[in-house]
Design brief:
The chain is of the alpha+beta class. Helices cover 18% and strands 27% of the residues. The protein has six helices and twelve strands.
């Protein structure tokens, strides 16, 4: 890990300067160094006419968010879980009060952010939200490890339909990894054309049709993407394939609501050309998502207050 001396100031040249624990999608974002903070933040009860949430290098706007959802965003927990299995405890208003947040990022940090990948920018926002929760909501929490239902990415066939990338060394400046998420902060996915993708995962949607293009992507990259996807229901996803290479592949599927998602192993498909995700994954890549039990880190809320005045 880089020394603190290499992370001085606000020039965040890499997310690893904050000791992020993001090796697995079942892990929570931790920081071992002092957290960065917003320059200024305004917190108000949500407007009756909510606006779209957005993030730019200089500002973050989060609309109509509950504090529990804000905690999930700050610690890297997918929003798609409705069971609140990973952020536990706290007063009832954490789920009933909705807020609009407008925050400004310090100027030199905003300038440095433009040199980072989309994932690194999102991680920085998460760290600043951790500061905001501690300073304005007086949030105190601790972590525990509990056995939860997770999805394990496993090999479904003896010879997975994966093509190893000709370049097995990942770039030090990876291309953004696009993922579908219900998190409050949204940023445009770039590049927008699969032909421009050099490293990472890009997913494009056309109605209910989805196509994933991966270049020099690891299966750890793939499980991180699945962790933010609504059809896995917010469950943690872990890589149990035993495959450590980098791969180039395309995956096509038809999106379905959670209620309509077939169980893993089901062969039902509304469209044989673009089947549901749980059918497309073994047929096209030789992999599958298997429900299992595994240890996962959870957050327990010890104390929090309504936000302090702006």
């Amino acid at each position: 890990m880089p020394s603190k001396e290499n992370c001085t100031g606000l020039l965040l040249v890499a997310a690893t300067c904050f000791g992020l624990a993001v090796a697995s999608s079942a892990q929570i974002i931790h920081a071992t160094d002092p957290l960065p903070s917003f320059e200024v933040a305004t917190i108000k009860l949500a407007s009756s006419q909510p606006q779209l949430s957005s993030a730019s290098p200089a500002e973050v706007h989060i609309s109509n968010v509950t504090v529990r959802n804000l905690i999930e965003q700050a610690y890297g927990i997918p929003w798609t879980s409705t069971d609140n299995e990973r952020v536990l405890g706290g007063p009832a208003w954490l789920d009933t009060n909705h807020y609009d947040i407008a925050a400004r990022i310090p100027g030199d940090l905003a300038e440095a952010r433009q040199r980072l990948s989309r994932d690194q920018q999102k991680q920085q926002i998460s760290l600043m939200l951790q500061s905001l929760l501690a300073e304005r909501f007086h949030l105190k929490l601790h972590f525990e490890t509990r056995v939860l239902t997770v999805y394990a990415l496993v090999v479904a066939k003896p010879n997975p339909h994966l093509v190893e990338s000709t370049n097995q060394s990942q770039s030090t400046q990876p291309q953004p990894t696009a993922q579908e998420t219900l998190a409050p902060v949204s940023q445009p996915s770039k590049p927008e054309d699969p032909k421009d993708l050099r490293h990472g995962i890009l997913v494009l949607y056309n109605g209910q049709s989805a196509q994933m293009t991966a270049k020099q992507a690891s299966l750890d990259d793939l499980v991180r993407w699945f962790a933010g996807y609504s059809e896995v229901g917010g469950r943690p996803v872990v890589n149990q394939t035993g495959l450590s290479g980098l791969y180039d592949f395309t995956l096509r599927w038809t999106r379905q609501s959670l209620a309509a998602t077939p169980q893993p192993g089901s062969s039902d498909a509304a469209d044989s050309d673009a089947p549901p995700l749980f059918t497309a994954l073994p047929n096209q890549l030789g992999l599958r998502l298997k429900p299992t039990k595994a240890p996962a880190e959870v957050i327990l809320i010890d104390h929090t207050d309504p936000p302090t005045d702006n």
